[in-house]
């Protein structure tokens, strides 16, 4: 039934727990050197959600610089710059900015 589908569609499928953390970031598309301002809303060991005034296509690689402090759980991955892949974006209700979800590369352990 439709109700069952709606419930299943909202089941959490993330590998890592999200932590609310508001901080300023700057980011660039890997193919360019110009950096844009963004605001991180939450993060996990596996990814980040932030807002920006520009849209970025899914599949794009970006470089993230931490303007504010680097969250502890991802500090080992992020030295000066952290690479991520944009998974999705959505225009916000204000029509002036975008929600962006990006995934950090998988961490390989030996």
- Can you tell me the overall shape? globular
- The helix-and-strand class reads mainly beta
Beta-strand percent range: 35-45%
Query: Which blocks of ≥5 consecutive residues have pLDDT under 50?
Result: 1-11
Overview of the molecule:
- With 110 residues, the chain is mostly beta strands.
- Helices cover 7% and strands 44% of the residues.
- The chain has one helix and six strands, in the order αββββββ.
- A six-stranded antiparallel β-barrel has the order 1-2-3-6-5-4.
- β5 (81-91) and β6 form a beta hairpin.
- It starts with a helix and ends in a 7-residue tail after the last strand.
List descriptors.
single chain; 110 residues; mainly beta; six-stranded antiparallel beta barrel; 1 helix; 6 strands; 44% strand; disordered N terminus
In short:
A six-stranded antiparallel β-barrel has the order 1-2-3-6-5-4.
Strands, helices and their partners?
Layout: H1 2-9, E1 19-29, E2 36-43, E3 47-52, E4 61-66, E5 81-91, E6 98-103
Antiparallel strand pairs: 1-2, 1-4, 2-3, 3-6, 4-5, 5-6
